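Hi,

Apologies if this is the wrong queue. I'm a grad student, and the batch job for Tripartite-type tricarboxylate transporter receptor subunit TctC from Roseicyclus mahoneyensis produced an output file that my downstream script rejects. I'm not sure whether the problem is my script or the file. Here is the sequence I used:
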Amino acid sequence: MINLSTTRRKALGLVAVSVLAMTAGAPQMARADLSGATVDFVIPFSESGGSATWANFFAPLMSQALEGNPTVVVRYRPGAGSTAGANWFAEQTTDNGTLVFGTSGSTQFPYLLRDPRVRYEYRDWTPVLASGTGGVVYLPADLGARFDGDMDDLQDEFFIFGSQGATTLDLVPLLAFRMLGLQVEPVFGIEGRGDGRLMFERGEANIDYQTSSAYIRNVQPLVDQGLAVPVMTWGILDNDGNVVRDPTFPDIPTFAEICDATEGCETEGVAWEAWSAFFVSGFAAQKLVYLPGTASPEVVAMYEAAMAGILARPDFAEISAAELGVYPQMIGPAALVAHEAAITVSDEARQYVLDWLREDYGVTLE
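Support response: The file is valid. Your script probably expects a header line. Output copied below for reference.
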């Protein structure tokens, strides 16, 4: 097991508080009511990726749980690596509960890196749900047949990877590929991870990764047909801050395991610390549902009660595992902890990533 030394306290707090929140029961019902209303659940991605799967899973549950049983509709606003949709949400004044925003690591990373495209401030928003997730890297069958537990035999291969951008959630795989010594040429500019999968299916890319929900729905069928081979997950954090195997994919080794087995890759030092920091922000606390910060206490309480009711459903563990995988769903104090983890990174880790982005991709954030 590999320990994330610089993020252990954050991870421990996240896990501990999430357990408390999920067992504490629903908050007291509030007087806000959405009878006859339509709630726009906006995500800053296309409709083919993991965020779309996640949002469409929660939307009907929210409709059933929110006071007045409003119609909850998922709306897509992709562009600029998800910063366009986030900037749009930051400008909205609808705070009566009929507008919520679903963010992801691809939205958090530009914020962490102080990307000049970012005109949104996470601390202006109120989190009501946080979802952890995982991710799986996979190869086409011919390259997958050459994978034997390390990347030594694939370091001479030339890979094409469809990417939303170097400062999006794809930062985690791109840095992992670099640490593994793989020659990966990213094709930047796709609107969502689902578009990267479509490139893979068309033979335009020969390495890809998907977050767990999209992998379960869209990639597992390719694996079952012998068209794709999973090679590693990002793993999850245990209660001691160690990277361990993802319980959704227990038979697939973690990046940490593959790194340890691959010549030249190390699970210590500044590169590992930087990867670890963005892994925590991008996966352990990846997806969050936000209300505008100006939403009234009654509206916030209504959403918190609804989310608590969803997590308390007797069938929630079963249906969420099938759609999203086995990961924490955090509300109340735990959602606040996840929110802070998602938007916090050390200066050292940030600078390492900024230097790498400039050197490898000519990306400067000024």
